[in-house]
Specification:
mainly beta, 7-stranded mixed sheet, 4-stranded antiparallel sheet
Length: about 130
């Protein structure tokens, strides 16, 4: 069974930084696009960032562009989300997810991601 385990969440002041990690196992990590999503209380899950298989092309939601950086280490089967200049509106549970199909770009639709981690809470105080 595919496993995705997030870590690195916590409480931080506005303007601070956090680095999330997602350790993957039991699939060919380098062959899949990986995404980060978040869900705030009372809101739908929303796309944050993705990084493709192969060349590692990245794409970000407008709300985090210039502040967040997604990266991957295929040797460690881990995807990261470096979050800088955090704002209170970034407060949410953050999830990593694996694309539905190998060697494809799943885009921003959560429905195109098959496996999800348990989530890690990020809270930004004002």
């Amino acid at each position: 069974q595919v496993q995705l385990v997030e870590s690195g969440g916590g409480l931080v002041n506005s303007g601070g930084s956090l680095r999330l990690s997602c350790a993957a196992s039991l699939f060919s990590f380098s062959s899949y696009t990986m995404g980060w999503f978040r869900q705030a209380p009372g809101k739908e899950r929303e796309f944050v960032a993705l990084i493709s298989w192969g060349p590692g092309n990245t794409y970000y939601a407008d709300s985090v562009k210039g502040r967040f950086t997604i990266s991957r280490d295929n040797a460690r089967s881990t995807v990261y989300l470096q979050m800088n200049s955090l704002k209170p509106e970034d407060t949410a549970v953050y999830y990593c997810a694996r694309a539905m199909t190998a060697t494809s770009i799943s885009g921003v639709d959560p429905g195109r991601y098959t496996y999800w981690g348990q989530g890690t809470q990020v809270t930004v105080s004002s």
